[in-house]
Task: inverse folding
């Protein structure tokens, strides 16, 4: 991995991401309930716990409104969850201003065209392995794992290991189990 990319991973204080296609596989299952069912990967959830233990703020920014997203975010104690928005870049700017953080210390994980402005604006823009080609082209890093299949965990592990925060975060999380 290039030295500058190593530095990008090590400087992250804020991790934001899309939900559908990043934390889920992008499939929506419709049944009797008006909200579609989605599945979240347990390894991504554990990775987000590790990130929080390392002092990294987490944000989910998604165009979809879904009770499953809200339930999972509450379970994982996600810092910021913004649903039903179209301008993810403006939303991220508002969050960064509120938390006195900067784009240069932010990573964003996306999978589709609407994520490109954010992927290009942050210090570390990430595309999941099954992202559309335009997002991959805009990204600094492309995961080896797909959305909903551990891609978020892959990114968190890299951030924590490259910044020297892995051992401390792991100990904190394991003490809490």
Result:
């Amino acid at each position: 991995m290039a030295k500058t990319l190593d530095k990008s991973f090590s400087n992250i204080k804020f991790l934001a991401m899309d939900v559908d296609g990043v934390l889920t596989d992008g499939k929506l299952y419709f049944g009797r309930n008006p909200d579609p069912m989605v599945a979240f990967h347990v390894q991504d959830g554990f990775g987000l716990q590790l990130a929080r233990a390392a002092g990294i703020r987490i944000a989910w920014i998604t165009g979809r409104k879904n009770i499953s997203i809200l339930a999972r975010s509450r379970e994982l104690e996600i810092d910021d969850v913004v649903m039903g928005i179209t301008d993810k870049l403006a939303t991220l700017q508002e969050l960064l201003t509120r938390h006195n953080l900067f784009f240069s210390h932010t990573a964003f994980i996306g999978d589709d065209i609407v994520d490109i402005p954010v992927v290009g604006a942050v210090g570390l823009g990430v595309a999941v392995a099954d992202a559309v080609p335009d997002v991959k082209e805009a990204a600094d890093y492309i995961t080896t794992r797909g959305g909903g299949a551990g891609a978020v965990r892959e990114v968190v592990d890299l951030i924590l290991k490259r910044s020297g925060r892995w051992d401390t975060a792991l100990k904190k999380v394991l003490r809490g189990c």
